[in-house]
Design a protein that fits this description.
The strands form six sheets. Strands 6-9-10-12-11 form a five-stranded mixed barrel. It has a four-stranded antiparallel sheet with strand order 16-15-19-20. Strands 14-21-22 form a three-stranded antiparallel sheet. It contains four helices and 22 strands. It folds into three domains: 30 residues, no CATH class; 116 residues, Nucleic acid-binding proteins (OB fold (Dihydrolipoamide Acetyltransferase, E2P), Beta Barrel); 120 residues, no CATH class. The N and C termini lie far apart (59 Å). It has 303 residues and is mostly beta strands.
């Protein structure tokens, strides 16, 4: 498709899903594109205006690690911190855009006085950095995966060693034991609670589960909602060590939390959020690298 766009070659698209209500056309795995003749296009091609700069194109923003929660995905940032490496060897990854192999080291922790974040470092930057040293990084990219924030280097990323150091570096300990157990009196915030079911044919998320049946917008399959498996995700903020800690939770952990209120994922979003805000003395385990809750140890219902 990039070749057709750059060469301005007319194309014939087949098996396109048209979303009439949204005015969008969906090109998926079942769709195909064929080159065709200029004579097959009975109108003059008009190049659309260039879009406004995206977050990825904007100048890098200088932030602290605590401020990362306010940054949009793919935005470039500059941040200083102390770097800690884990023991895993960099893994080889095939870059789709260039069809070339590269290496990435994912078990890295960057920390400053405001917090910690996972950092993915790519060749050739891997061999230029040393664990335990402090650096000023420019043009790191903010990424999100399963509700967790991490930073990723790119060909534009630079790292300059600095003399700023922390009194206590937490990175090595976090890399050895990423799963921690804490107890909090309650949840401070509940955000982005989503209830959905995967389509039984193409696995696309189905979020409209209010009626007895629903139709998948991707593959067009209509299915009964009572035959679908309910799943969920949520962002939870707790106060830990006098700072706000944002964590992600998924179906298994959310189900355990709801058991204390005799609710299930079949209840409404409003009921589930209200129930979770009334829980007390919640003890849970979480992955401190990914900021994902991994297990609910115990929880009490608000009297």
């Amino acid at each position: 498709m990039q070749h057709y766009e750059q060469s301005k070659t007319p194309v014939l698209l087949k098996n396109i899903i048209v979303k009439e209500n949204e005015g969008d056309w969906l090109f998926n795995q079942q769709s195909t594109a064929y080159p065709c003749s200029n004579s097959d296009v009975p109108f003059e091609c008009k190049v659309p205006p260039k879009p406004e700069p995206t977050a990825q194109q904007l100048p890098a923003t200088e932030v602290t690690i605590k401020q990362l929660s306010t940054i949009t995905t793919n935005q470039k940032i500059n941040v200083s911190g102390t770097l800690s490496f884990g023991d895993k060897e960099p893994k080889q990854v095939m870059i789709k855009a260039t069809q070339t192999a590269s290496h990435v080291k994912e078990d890295c922790i960057l920390e400053d006085s405001t917090g910690t974040v996972t950092l993915h470092i790519w060749d050739p930057l891997i061999n230029q950095l040393k664990t335990g040293k402090s650096y000023m990084f420019t043009n790191l990219t903010v990424k999100y995966y399963q509700g967790s924030t991490f930073l990723s280097a790119s060909p534009l990323t630079t790292a300059t060693e600095t003399t700023v150091s922390l009194e206590k570096v937490m990175g090595p300990e976090l890399l050895r034991t990423p799963e921690q157990e804490i107890t909090v009196p309650d949840f401070k915030f509940i955000s982005r609670l989503t209830l959905f079911s995967p389509c039984i044919v193409c696995n696309k998320r189905l979020t409209d589960l209010s009626s007895s049946s629903t139709k998948c917008q991707q593959c067009g399959t209509r299915q009964r909602t009572n035959h679908l498996t309910r799943e969920s995700s949520v962002r939870i903020c707790v106060v830990h060590n006098n700072t706000d800690l944002w964590l992600s939770a998924f179906t298994k952990e959310i189900t355990k939390l709801l058991e204390a209120k005799s609710l299930t994922l079949n209840n409404t979003v409003e009921d589930i959020e209200e129930a979770m805000m009334n829980l007390q003395n919640i003890t849970f385990k979480y992955d401190s690298q990914k900021n994902v809750i991994t297990d609910i140890v115990s929880v009490k219902d608000h009297p």
